[in-house]
Amino acid sequence: MLARWYKHFKETSPHADEFEIVFASSDQSKKEFEEYHATMPWCAIPFEERARVEQMMSQHGVMGIPTLVVVGADGKIITKSGRSIVTADPNGQDFPWTDEKYAGGVMSGLAGLLPIVGLVMLVLVVGRMTGLF
Questions:
Q1: pTM listed for this prediction
Q2: What's the CA gap between 54 and 25, in Å, rounded?
Q3: What does the pLDDT look like over 26-57, one tens digit per residue?
């Protein structure tokens, strides 16, 4: 579902260049990471940077996987329940999702991910998203 949503959004939305999904792996081996990431149409934090992923998860209370964290360009967490946004907005027509009711803190540890030219929002996929691909 998420891969289909992402492809549709990237092909049809006037905001396609303002949005990106980044996979943050919880895989235990590089082989598992590479095999799973090969099924995704988006980029990933390199497997070698697992400590960075673990630090972000711990620091921001991401306890369960899978988790979709929606982060604004300023690094502020919009929601840790990104799956509900994607489900509620199947065509991405409400993007950017900036409603204050989703406010949830600042996601540190994203240096190097957010300074993508024109990026308004980032969805961080943490863990294996069973049933979303």
A1: 0.74
A2: 9
A3: 888 999 889 988 988 988 889 998 888 888 77
Q: How far apart are CA 63 and CA 76, in angstroms?
A: 19
Q: Which DSSP string corresponds to 88-117?
A: H-TT-TT-S---GGG---B--S-TTTS-ST
Taken in order of first residue, the domains within the chain and their CATH numbers are 2-126 (3.40.30.10)
Q: What is the pLDDT of residues 102-127, one digit of tens each?
A: 444 444 444 444 333 344 555 655 55
26-31, Cβ contacts within 8 angstroms, sequence gap of 24 or more:
26/53, 26/57, 26/65, 26/126, 26/127, 26/128, 27/128
Are 66 and 128 contacting, i.e. CB atoms less than 8 angstroms apart? yes
Indicate the pairing of strand 19-24 with strand 43-44: parallel
Q: Are the beta carbons of 121 and 97 closer than 8 angstroms?
A: yes
